[in-house]
Amino acid sequence: MTLRLLATLFAGVFLMGAAPDDDPYAWMEEIEGSRPLEWARAENASSLPRLQNDPRYAALYADALKIATAKDRIPAVRFAGDGSLRDFWQDADHVRGIWRTTSLDSYRSGKPQWRTILDLDALAKSEGANWVWHGAACLAPEDRLCLVELSNGGKDAAVVREFDAVAGAFVEGGFVIPEAKANYAWLDRDTLVVATEWTEGDLTASGYPYIVKTLKRGQPLDQAQEVFRGQKADVSVQPMVLREPDGQVAAVIAGRGLDFFNSEYHLLTPNGPAKLDLPTKATIQGYVAGRLVVSLEQDWAEKGFKEGDLIDFDLAAVKADPARLAGTLVLRPTQSQAIEQVATTRNRLVVALYDNVKGQVLSYARQGEAWTSSRLDLPKDSSIGISSASDRDDRLILNVTGFLTPSSQWLADAASGAPERLAVMPERFDASDMKVEQLWATSKDGTRVPYFVVSKKDLKLDGSNPTLLYAYGGFLVSQTPAYAQTAGKLWLEKGGVYVVANIRGGGEFGPRWHNAGLKLNRMRVYEDFFAVSEDLIARKITSPRRLGIMGGSNGGLLMGVALTKRPELYNAVVIQVPLFDMIGYTHIGAGASWVGEYGDPAIPAERAMLMSYSPYQNLKPGQKYPRVFLETSTKDDRVHPAHARKAAARLKEYGYDYLYYENIDGGHAAAANLNERAMRQALEYTYLHQQLMD
Predict the structure, then answer these.
(1) DSSP labels for 269-285?
(2) Of the N and C termini of the chain, which has fewer Cβ atoms inside 10 Å?
(3) Is position 109 within any domain?
(4) How far is residue 181's CA from residue 157's CA, in Å, rounded to a whole number?
């Protein structure tokens, strides 16, 4: 199984800033205070009728709901230790979802016989809770005992409860971790390795745990034994357990997140922690064939390795001398390539590699002192994702997709390389008259930036085409082609153009693409986005009157920067669950976690850069802003709804027309269930039709 260090989530070494004394809307930072919620409900009451009373809304919602709840979707199955398949499924009858299982043979038949493991709708009803599924971590190799993570309303913080997947019931007297942003792993059937808020205040300033303890079955939390401690200035600490194929523990490691991208790894031994000799920008990706596999996000010059390399170490040697590691090169991507995923089967190392944002999968076998590789025979010019890798054998489940190509699911043997197509999603929209092009824009500093354009084949280059441009640009997250089922039905079929930009900040060309836009270099990300926007206009694919943009979270920040820096380029801006106040962000929600990405407002040079683009501080009266649509969720305990709330309040103060929707549940996804997701999508596309097609 893939082992990514989750401790690097939302991190930062920083001097935490306080709320500015002159911020008139600081009261909106009380996430569920009566005054902010009253304000949000009033905004919803004002904005929603302007969209839902549009004659197009009902049809858009019906189409979005049909897609979201379709029963002929491809199940996201994963291998379980007993050879069965499991997935979490939602549809119109199971809005919250069911965790279920079937055999591989039954699944192959095309009409699988499912057994429900846990019904979340029934559980929520019986317990009177708004449970949202966060997943399950099961004890290898049987995968019978599982730690089920349940979130109240979609928050990142969740309750963890032990569940017997065979009996289909919570374990009486089993493990329970109270609501927290906890990190945990099974050590054995009677022991967990856990990082959580053991006592009040045992959290980093980012709001994540930093103390790791072993917790025995039946043991009260206050009797757990400490095995590792980070620091409050860290982001979080993540325990991980490496296992042999038979489930035996090979090593226990604590990953200490110094900031979002810099981590230390400590081998936990009976004599205490031992720090591993790794650069801080490195990620443990897995363990297979006795080798510890690591990706590098920075050069390791003294060892001869480069940023983007995939390397490995003999785990026995690592354990013998953690302070002096000798690695070997597995894969060095070219300038046009990026390692998107790494997974391990029982005997194989598997890599999803992208070249100019087009995917392939490589299977590596350990032969003596070296790795040999082969490429799996999968569709070309596609996005290929590793959905699951078996620890029991060398099988993989892969997902293959493209903008106009319905997603397909494949079973492959990483050893024999013989893929078998298991399922194909039915077409959700008519793409027979559509095409996909990859074009390139030139950014301000001369960097070439790729983007994909999805449109009708007979697209007229006269600047009249309603065009939606989507981008993210941060945190090493790649925007690879994916079946545009909702955009296809709600936008492309109706004559719109859909564009995805692969701007810097993402991982489309590996760590170098991401590192180029960090902190003081942040404007490169935004300049890339403006360059793509201008290129679309210069090619007469669209015009400012017909160009709209959309982005969420870090992409919502991107939208805010575009609104305040280059409003003349756009006539629609969808700002989803955004960051917006980049001077105050370190004290809002989990914002302190992201100093490694954006910089610290307590450091003068970084504050100056943040001030130069922070949308909240750069909103001004008397500008020609388009009417924007802001979306957030009350339950978003990651970015925090205050960003969107304060943005809307400032727009209102300056007399601008805008739309605002705050989902009272939903977490950072802004939707707690499929009905809410369909509603949000229908609202967005109604707005886009109003702004760009009318």
Answers:
(1) ETTEEEE----SSEEEE
(2) C
(3) yes
(4) 4
Closest Cα to residue 533, out of 460, 444, 619?
A: 444
pLDDT score recorded for residue 15:
29
Catalytic residue of the set 514, 643, 668, 689: 668
Q: CB neighbours (10 Å) of residue 653?
A: 12
Task: State how far the Cα of 594 lies from the Cα of 182, in Å rounded to an integer.
Answer: 18
What distance in Å separates the CA atoms of residue 590 and residue 339, rounded to the nearest whole number?
28
Cα–Cα dist 100/118, whole Å: 7
pLDDT of residue 361: 98
Domain that holds residue 163: 82-139+142-180
What's residue 672's pLDDT?
Answer: 64
**pLDDT at residue number 474:** 98
Query: What pLDDT does 666 receive?
Result: 57
Handedness of CA 475, 154, 168, 422 (dihedral sign): negative
CATH of the domain at 511: 3.40.50.1820
pLDDT score recorded for residue 211? 98
Measure CA of the first residue to CA of the last residue in the chain; give whole Å. 49
Q: In 10 A of CB 474, how many CB atoms? A: 27
Spatial distance between the Cα atoms of 422 and 497, rounded to a whole number of angstroms: 31
Q: Is 1 exposed, middle or buried (0-12, 13-18, 19+ CB in 10 A)?
A: middle
Respond yes or no on whether the N-terminal peptide bond of residue 601 is cis (omega within 30° of 0): no
Is 567 within 8 Å of 488 (Cβ atoms)?
no
Which three-class secondary structure state does DSSP give residue 512?
helix
- Distance, in Å, from the CA atom of 333 to the CA atom of 309, rounded to the nearest integer, reads 7
> Residue 402 corresponds to which amino acid?
G
The pLDDT assigned to 670 comes to 62
Count H helices, E strands: the chain? 14, 37
Token pair for 475: 């945190």
Closest CA to 88 of 42, 134, 137, 40: 134
Phi/psi of residue 333, each to 5°? -65, 150
Give the contacts of 134 (CB within 8 A, at least 6 positions apart): 149, 150, 151, 158
Closest by CA to 548, choosing from 531, 565, 562, is 562
The model's pTM is: 0.92
Has 668 been annotated as catalytic?
A: yes
Locate 200 and state its tokens: 């009040």
d(CA 616, CA 618): 6
At residue 134, the pLDDT reads 97
Residue type at position 520: L
Preceding amide of 621 cis, omega within 30: no
CB atoms within 10 A of CB 516: 16
Catalytic residue among 47, 363, 478, 553: 553
Structure token pair of residue 586: 């370190």
Longest dimension (CA), the chain: 71
Residues 575 and 680 in one domain: yes
Distance CA 103, CA 86 (A): 9
Q: Is 553 a catalytic residue?
A: yes
Compute the distance between CA of residue 356 and CA of residue 338 in angstroms, rounded to an integer.
8
Q: Which two tokens stand for residue 333?
A: 């991507």
**Token digits for 47?**
């904005």
114 occurs within a structural domain: yes
Residue 195 lies in a domain: no
Residues 570 and 499 in one domain: yes
CB 286 within 8 A of CB 2: yes
**Do 47 and 173 lie in a common domain?**
no
